[in-house]
Design a protein that fits this description.
about 280 residues; mainly beta; Thrombin, subunit H; six-stranded antiparallel barrel; 1 helix; about 5% helix; globular
């Protein structure tokens, strides 16, 4: 139950407050996951649930107060903590997150940057907008900061342009008799599951409500996963809850064909139920 998408993105931050022993500290660290109302951060200090901290985002230079939701896991570099923003109206990350309406699902959620002013947004795309982005690696859309229509591209480490997939020749304007358009787009998607772990697959087709892919792993019907589509290693990726609703294969076949439907995300009253999974 989330109010906004989550972006797996590392941003340098400075956190300050007191640890569990009451000692004041200032630590330069980073985020791992971002949302409109919270984040997953790394810290070498012992933090406890419900304590307040101050975060300074070095990307924007803005400060904000946060509440520690709790620890997630320990690593050699420090422990991962979930934190909730106490003043979510302050856009401390400098990223525009659209609210999740919970009524209709986009074909994809992508993290885009305006090539003129470098504003960053989480953008919900329908199947045809996704096809344009995959074919051209950019998309024309309105920019509130520029007050004009500009080109938007996916952000990537090092270089600004990365190939994110492509459409098969027969996919142009292919619409089947179903509730939403389905295009034969071959694009990388990343799946996460508590048992099967993480794997990158290639889609066979994409619609506003889900997609179809092949895998050597057997996902039973009803399995709940998290999926990022399109997916680029090392880039800012957005994972969305989804459910396996169709499966073909088995009986000696090496791969299984699976149909996936996105799970609607109704508006939640607070962030206390924020669930953050481990990025790899």
């Amino acid at each position: 139950m989330r109010r906004s998408d989550r972006v797996y993105l590392e941003i340098p931050i400075i956190i300050s407050g007191t640890d569990s022993a009451g000692r004041e500290f200032v630590e330069k660290t980073r985020t791992l996951v971002l949302s409109r109302r919270g984040a997953k951060i790394v810290s070498r200090h012992a933090l406890v649930p419900e304590q307040n901290l101050t975060i300074r985002c070095l990307k924007t230079g803005l400060d904000t107060a946060v509440r520690v939701v709790g620890p997630i896991m320990g690593e050699e570099e420090g422990c991962h903590f979930g934190v909730a923003l106490l003043h979510p109206k302050v856009n401390v990350w400098g990223i525009n997150f659209p609210l999740l309406a919970g009524t209709e699902n986009p074909a994809a959620r992508v993290f885009l940057e305006c090539t003129d002013c470098h504003a960053q947004e989480v953008v919900h795309l329908d199947v045809f907008e996704l096809e344009v982005l995959l074919a051209n690696e950019c998309l024309s859309r309105s920019c509130k900061q520029c007050n004009d229509t500009t080109l938007w591209m996916r952000s990537a480490p090092g270089e600004g342009r990365i190939p994110v997939g492509g459409a098969t020749p027969e996919s142009r304007h292919t619409i089947q008799e179903r509730k939403t358009a389905r295009l034969n787009l071959k694009v990388d998607a990343c799946l996460r599951h508590s048992v099967h772990g993480e794997e990158v697959v290639s889609t066979e087709n994409v619609s506003r409500g889900g997609f179809r892919f092949r895998s050597r792993k057997d996902y039973p019907i009803g399995t709940v996963i998290e999926a990022a589509l399109p997916y680029s290693p090392g880039a800012a990726n957005i994972f969305t809850p989804a459910r396996i609703v169709h499966k073909e294969g088995g009986g000696g076949e090496e791969t299984f064909a699976h149909g996936v439907v996105y799970i609607p995300s109704p508006l939640a009253p607070s962030l206390t139920g924020m669930r953050i999974t481990r990025p790899k």
